[in-house]
């Protein structure tokens, strides 16, 4: 993911992923710089929201994966995996978003799963922009 500077426009394109599972096949999910402020930590959208609200969480996960791993690399991987290997999803009619659910597993050298994390990528259904992306260690509302 490319970083967004303080003066960078909110609508600057950072990255595009494609949802790769029926019935969502080939729908774009676009990450723009977006908005976020510490005065309203739950608000905003896009890269700035992910960095401001969830960046510390992604950094903790990155520290578990490898020494000196950048949180953006882990978030990038998780967003990609969550959109290409959808575990489940749900539309939220109140704000016209769809939350794509995925799961990522940390594995040992022998393939044994050490820890499983459940990712959520919320995408606005009108303009396909990514609102947020985060993970949790509990399976909340995911169905196989």
Would you spell out the secondary-structure blueprint of this structure?
Blueprint: E1 13-19, E2 27-32, E3 35-37, E4 40-45, H1 46-65, H2 71-84, E5 88-92, E6 97-107, E7 113-124, E8 130-136
Antiparallel strand pairs: 1-2, 3-4, 5-6, 6-7, 7-8
Helix pairs in contact: 1-2
How does this model look, in words?
The chain is of the alpha+beta class and about 140 residues long. The chain has one domain (about 15-135). It is built from two helices and eight strands. Strands 5-6-7-8 form a four-stranded antiparallel β-sheet, with helices on one face. A two-stranded antiparallel ribbon has the order 1-2. A two-stranded antiparallel ribbon has the order 3-4. A hairpin with a 4-residue loop joins strand 5 (about 90) and strand 6.
The count of domains is 1
Mean pLDDT: 87
Count the strands? 8
What is the 3D form? globular
Helix percentage range: 10-25%
Which blocks of ≥5 consecutive residues have pLDDT under 50?
Answer: none
């Amino acid at each position: 993911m490319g970083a967004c500077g303080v003066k960078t426009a909110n609508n600057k394109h950072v990255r595009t992923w494609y949802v790769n599972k029926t019935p969502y096949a080939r729908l774009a999910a676009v990450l723009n710089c977006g908005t976020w402020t510490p005065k309203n930590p739950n608000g905003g959208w896009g890269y700035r929201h992910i960095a401001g609200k969830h960046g510390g969480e992604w950094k903790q996960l990155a520290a578990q994966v490898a020494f000196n791993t950048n949180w953006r690399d882990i978030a990038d991987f998780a967003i990609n995996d969550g959109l290409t290997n959808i575990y489940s999803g749900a539309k939220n009619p109140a704000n016209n978003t769809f939350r794509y659910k995925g799961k990522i597993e940390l594995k040992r050298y022998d393939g044994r799963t050490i820890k499983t994390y459940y990712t959520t990528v919320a995408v606005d259904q009108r303009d396909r922009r990514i609102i947020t992306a985060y993970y949790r260690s509990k399976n909340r509302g995911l169905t196989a």
